[in-house]
Amino acid sequence: MRAKLTYLLTAAVLAVYFVLAGGRGIALIGIGTPLTVTFGVMVLILPVIGVWFLWKNTQFVARANQLSAELEAEGGLPVDELERDGYGRILRDSADEVFARRKAETEDAPGDWRTWFRLAVAYHDARDTPRARKAMQRAIALHDKKPVQV
């Protein structure tokens, strides 16, 4: 729940920024000199890129949550079996052990989105966010029966 609130707060702050930056860009264009029009267009590009980025990330999170709910309904969500230190942080050796099992599971069934989902969770637990994201993207593509990029 805390992650959702953080995401919503960040998205709201970004939306306010996009509106403010867009307003400044339009104001600069409205001045009408070649220099201010150029700056105005450049200022408008940032909110456009930001909106696109926010939209793609929101879609990704929504799809990952849908897969999580579906996997939970099937009883296939990975069980938290990780050892933690006194501060609640996951111990590296424990994460590596679970990761090795998830990787073997995925190699045995590479066309199953469920194994890729669980591998993504294992990557995340091992603090490898880029690979976790790629594994989750692959799980989403397999679930949606879309071509998978290798």
Give an account of the 3D structure:
With 150 residues, the chain is mostly helical. Helices cover 77% and strands 0% of the residues. It has 5 helices and no strands. The longest helix is centred in the middle third of the chain and has 41 residues, at 34-74. The two termini are 33 Å apart. The mean pLDDT is 91. The relative contact order is 0.08.
Low-confidence stretches: none
Number of helical stretches of at least 4 residues: 5
Q: What would the average pLDDT be, to the nearest integer?
A: 91
Shape: elongated
**Beta strand %:** under 5%
Spatial gap, N to C terminus: 33 Å
Class per helix and strand makeup: mainly alpha
- Tell me the number of strands: 0
H and E order = HHHHH
Specify the helix fraction band. over 70%
Report Rg.
21 Å
Biggest sheet statistics: none
